Amino acid sequence: MQTSVIVVLSVLGALPCILYLALRMISSPRPVRIPFANRHVLITGGSSGIGFELAKLALLEGASVSILARDIARLNEAKVALANSTGKEVRVFSADVKNLKSLSNVATEAGPIDVLICSHGVAIPKTFEDSSLDEINHMLDTNLRGNLYVIKAMLPSLKNRKDNYPASIAIVSSQAGQVGIYGYAAYSASKFGLKGLAESLQQELHCYNVRMSLIFPPDTYTPGFDKENETKPELTKLIGGINKISSAEDVAKKAVDGIKQGKFCIACNFDGWMLGIATMGMSPQPSAINAFAEIFLVGFLRLYALFITWSWYNTLIKWERKKEKHE
């Protein structure tokens, strides 16, 4: 009897090791390291906010950096600021991410690209009913179509890069691109689509040794953050609670670290890491360790997510009752 118990316990103890070894074989695509030094990094939305901080880190990593935005004056200001803080020069390109022809011209002028980071974006938080059609289209065109156009224009430059090291296309999404929340219907729609884009492109570009990454920042101090708060519904603020707001520098550091490791899903804080596991679905996973954690934590995190959504709807109910009393 005692021998049987020992055998059963030994088998149970060996199962995690067997599972981990199996995950090392099937985790796809395979793990890689993506260098920045002596390579060309092009960053959209690079004149301010997260994009500016990404450009600074890429320069400090030894990359040749190009930044793209619409406003040439802000681009030149960013160029001076980056030179002052890093001692290195960047190239600047003025283009609208909604204009494919303009982006194609930039791609031709910029030359081969090794790392493309799409950091542009716009958020106008309002209820869907209160959002104008122009505001909805602006978010969809900038956040979704803008990424489609940028990648479409720059893809030949990535495929024609000069070295044989892995390349990367990284897209700055949002935690609102992982879960929908009151006041972000149109914005979330524009960001949710990026996951399908990245998952599909990862399969298409695997043979070219190009890795896709999705970056999911939480609320972050950027020039646009205060403007977002001007239109953000009160109920959105209540549901969000008192969350710690990240700095653009911290988000950029986590993003660069994740890109260099070839991660598909790049979280920028602990909540984002948990949310990433809870919403992973069929996304690629190069890391066997992360795959192991996902398998064992997904059930618990689903339970945790149910408690979170319960708290949101509880807030909604209280809000509705409060409104009824004042009407």
TrEMBL record:
It catalyses: sphinganine + NADP(+) = 3-oxosphinganine + NADPH + H(+). The chain crosses the membrane at residues 6-23, 288-313. It is found in: Endoplasmic reticulum. Its main location: endoplasmic reticulum. Keywords: Endoplasmic reticulum, Lipid metabolism, Membrane, NADP, Nucleotide-binding, Oxidoreductase, Sphingolipid metabolism, Transmembrane, Transmembrane helix. It comes from the Eukaryota. The keyword NADP applies. One of its GO terms (molecular function) is 3-dehydrosphinganine reductase activity. One of its GO terms (biological process) is 3-keto-sphinganine metabolic process. It is an enzyme of class 1 (oxidoreductase). The keyword NAD does not apply. GO terms for cellular component: endoplasmic reticulum membrane. InterPro entries: KDSR-like, NAD(P)-bd_dom_sf, Sc_DH/Rdtase_CS, SDR_fam. Its EC number is 1.1.1.102. Pathway: Sphingolipid metabolism; Lipid metabolism; sphingolipid metabolism. CDD domains: KDSR-like_SDR_c (cd08939). Belongs to the short-chain dehydrogenases/reductases (SDR) family. PANTHER family: 3-KETODIHYDROSPHINGOSINE REDUCTASE. This is 3-dehydrosphinganine reductase. It comes from Ceratopteris richardii (Triangle waterfern).
